[in-house]
């Protein structure tokens, strides 16, 4: 999904949303990953990285919230996120930027 002129969260008012919030990946707060969580079935988050925006869907898990997209994953547990973006990309760690 490509970004529109209004950014990735243009249609956020159609369903209840938490966010957007930004995650600093690997401690780099200058290039955060914006994420918004949506109250859908299944639960969804939308993340914005580079020139693309991706819907990522919640997956069953034992602990934390784990989301999986086509080539992206996002797993949040106790305030720490593990993020991968792109096929074969290395996993990054992230925390919400205050």
What letter string, H or E per element, gives the SSE order? EEEEEEEE
Helicity range: under 10%
Poorly predicted runs of 5 or more residues:
1-8
Beta percentage is over 45%
Any idea what the radius of gyration is?
Answer: 13 Å
- CATH homologous superfamily classification: C-type lysozyme inhibitor
Mass-distribution shape: globular
Structural class: mainly beta
Mean pLDDT: 81
The CATH top-level class label = Mainly Beta
Distance between the termini: 27 Å
What does this structure look like?
This is Lysozyme inhibitor. InterPro entries: Lysozyme_Inhibitor_LprI, MliC, MliC_sf. Residues 23-91 form the C-type lysozyme inhibitor domain. One of its GO terms (cellular component) is extracellular region. It is a single chain. This protein is an all-beta fold and 98 residues long. It has a single domain, classed as Beta Barrel (Lipocalin). The chain contains no helices and eight strands. Strands 1-2-3-4-5-6-7-8 form an eight-stranded antiparallel beta barrel. A hairpin with a 2-residue loop joins β3 and β4 (52-59). The chain is globular, with a radius of gyration of 13 Å. The relative contact order is 0.20. Residues 1-8 have low confidence and may be disordered.
């Amino acid at each position: 999904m490509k970004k529109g002129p209004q950014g990735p969260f243009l249609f956020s008012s159609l369903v209840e949303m938490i966010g957007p919030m930004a995650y600093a990946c690997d401690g780099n707060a200058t290039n955060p990953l914006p994420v918004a969580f949506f109250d859908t079935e299944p639960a969804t988050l939308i993340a914005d990285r580079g020139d693309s925006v991706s819907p990522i869907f919640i997956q069953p898990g034992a602990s934390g919230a784990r989301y999986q997209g086509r080539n992206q994953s996002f797993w949040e547990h106790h305030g720490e996120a593990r993020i991968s973006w792109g096929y074969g990309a290395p996993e990054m760690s992230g925390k919400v930027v205050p």
